Amino acid sequence: MDAQPFDLALIWAFIIGFGVIMYVLMDGFDLGVGMLFPFAPDETSRDVMMNTVAPVWDGNETWLVLGGAGLLAAFPLVYSIFLPALYLGVFLLLAGLIFRGVAFEFRFKARSSKYLWNLAFSGGSTLASFAQGVVVGAYIQGFEVTNGAYSGGALDWLTPFTVLTGIGLMAGYCLLGATWLILKTEGDLQEWAYRLTLPLLAIVLVVFGVISLWTPFVDEYVKNRWFDNLSVLWIFPVLVLFFAYRIFRSVRQRSEAMGFVFTMALFIASYLGLIASKWPYVVPPDYTLWDASSAYSSQLFLLIGLLFVIPIVLGYTAWSYWVFRGKVRAGEGYH
User: What is the pLDDT, as a whole number, of residue 55?
Assistant: First the structure.
């Protein structure tokens, strides 16, 4: 076989990885706002909270579609193993997103049933966040695969470890949501978000710390990467602690934007640490990036189309955030 001029599997891995982290960051804060919804000071505050994310939430989920479609096209083996292994988890994720999406539109029209849409919004956000965390935990655990097909049980993804990763991601999204509210609101609601941020940060650090200590016991490969050869991987937990400190400082200094920026940076450092610890396996513990990739010609054909799509998605995303920049106040907003 002739040598190929580009390693398209690597390029596609970067594209899908970029799509996933964009989804985590951009949909993470509005999922966090949803989970904080029941604890808001009053109904007016809930109106403002929803209006901070109403103009952008559906565009944020474009990245989830992009990542899923790219995974199917470029790494069909990953898709064919992940979907049977995580079928119920993915179903719960999508159900949560559906409930939340419907609540966005109906809550502003409702009168007597408004409390039900509040419940749908917060419940859907919680369910979707927990399901995403469980999926991450299941990926860390690895999958039982025989002859290129998933051979485990329907509930193998649900273990104490994955429950903890689900709780950890929920806490992380709540932290993103709180720092987003600091950025986008003012007055009593902003002060409420300030008060929530440091306790949420503490919960995130504790849960992430427990997950980090637990991970070597569920994945021997990760244990070898981190402990047998002390390497550059250790820069990622150091970065997480540094960004956590910067979040703490931003709250103390009442810096509105930097708390959100450093929370996103904390997520990116954690995400890169996970990728680096698993590299190059995409279906742990058996299949590497190149084992799971589709034909070179298929990847090339799809890549050409995606090179037109990604700039468009980035463009309208940036434009929507620019148009709806600034503070959101009571009585104002998207609706």
Answer: 83
Give every CB contact of residue 18 below 8 A, 6+ residues apart in sequence: none
CB 159 within 8 A of CB 137: yes
H helix intervals, the chain: 8-36, 43-53, 57-60, 62-74, 76-85, 87-107, 114-141, 160-184, 187-218, 220-223, 235-252, 258-278, 296-323
Amino acid sitting at position 233: L
Q: Where are the alpha helices (DSSP H) in 7-86?
A: 8-36, 43-53, 57-60, 62-74, 76-85
Pairwise CA distance, residues 302 & 304, whole Å: 5
Residue 280 sits in a domain of what CATH number? 1.20.1630
pLDDT at 306: 81
How would residue 1 be classed by pLDDT, with cut points 50, 70 and 90?
A: very low
The residue with greater pLDDT, 93 or 291, is 93
Longest dimension (CA), the chain: 68
Cβ neighbours of residue 87 under 8 Å, at least 6 residues apart?
A: 154
Kindly report the number of other CB atoms within 10 A of residue 204's CB atom. Answer: 26
Q: Per the confidence metrics, is the pTM higher than 0.85?
A: yes
Q: Is residue 328 part of a domain?
A: no
Sequence-ordered list of residues with C-beta below 8 angstroms from that of 269, at least 6 positions apart, any chain:
236, 239, 240, 243
Residue 105 lies inside a defined structural domain of this protein: yes
Other residues' Cβ atoms within 10 Å of the Cβ of residue 319: 11
Range 308-312, long-range pairs (CB < 8 A, 24+ positions)? 309/66, 310/15, 310/66
Please state the domain count of the chain.
1
The answer to whether residue 266 sits within a structural domain is yes
Residue 324 · residue 334 · CB < 8 Å: yes
146: part of which helix (H) or strand (E)? strand 145-146
Instruction: Report yes or no on 329 lying in a domain.
Output: no
Where in the sequence is the domain holding 129, given as residue range(s)?
8-323
Grade residue 329 by pLDDT with cuts at 50, 70 and 90.
Answer: confident
Report how far residue 209's alpha carbon sits from residue 213's, in angstroms, rounded to the nearest whole number.
6
Helix or strand or coil: residue 254?
coil
